[in-house]
Amino acid sequence: MLWLFFIMNLLGTVYGYEWYWLQMVDTIAEKPLWYVYFVPDSPTASLFFTLSVGYLILDRSRGSRSGKVYKAIRGFVEAFALITSFKYGVWAVTMIWAGAWQGVPVGWDGWMLTCSHLAMAVEALLFVRWYTFRIPAILLVACWTLWNDFMDYERGVFPRLPEVLVNNYYRTIEGFTISLSVIGILIAFICLGLRQKKQR
Question: Of 126, 111, 159, whose CA–CA distance to 53 is shortest?
């Protein structure tokens, strides 16, 4: 089952980077090179979720590891997977159907993206019971996530959206995105608190 999740999310990640490819190329051509790291939001979230599943597979095959560096890296990956997969899963579905509400057609790809991004949010919440992240990892991911929001909406590298949404609801979308970041961070802290309470 873990291998199935790993393979499906890996394929989705590859497709996601391909979907963002033209925007990444344009960003490299028009803006400082390092801006490109903040362009592919959903596939990067999916990549980290895939890596988090990889850690679970390693635990099953070789047993749990206890090295400090290993734990720190794994905790960061898992916190990143939870916060960003929840955030961009909900965000993408909301943007697709906000566009539909404004008359933008939802084709087969819109339905596919809806299902895949809903799955991103749900699976991140389902897998959180096996995550091992602690407060430093959450804080690091929180910094990245909020900085990514700044880059998206103050430096213009947000995912390409229908013009009707950008022209009429830009600041609303910005506020909604930041709100999802805060909610994702709070979810991580709540899950950590519940895990620590259970371990007592």
Answer: 126
Closest CA to 77 of 112, 109, 53, 100: 53
- CA-CA distances (angstroms) from residue 34 to 30, 31, 80? 11, 8, 19
Tokens in use for 133? 């992240």
Which tens digits make up the pLDDT trace of 6-46?
999 999 999 999 999 999 999 999 999 999 999 999 999 99
CB count in 10 Å sphere of residue 190: 11
Q: Per DSSP, which regions of the chain are E strands?
A: none
Identify the CA nearest to 5 among candidates 86, 109, 98, 122. 122
Each residue's pLDDT tens digit, 64-86: 666 889 999 999 999 999 999 99
157, containing H or E segment: none
* CA geometry: angle 147, 152, 156, nearest 5 deg: 135
* CA–CA separation, 174 and 171 (whole Å): 5
CA dihedral of 41, 43, 49, 53, whole degrees rounded to 10: -170
d(CA 68, CA 71): 5
pTM of the model: 0.94
**Helical (H) or strand (E) element with 117:** helix 108-127
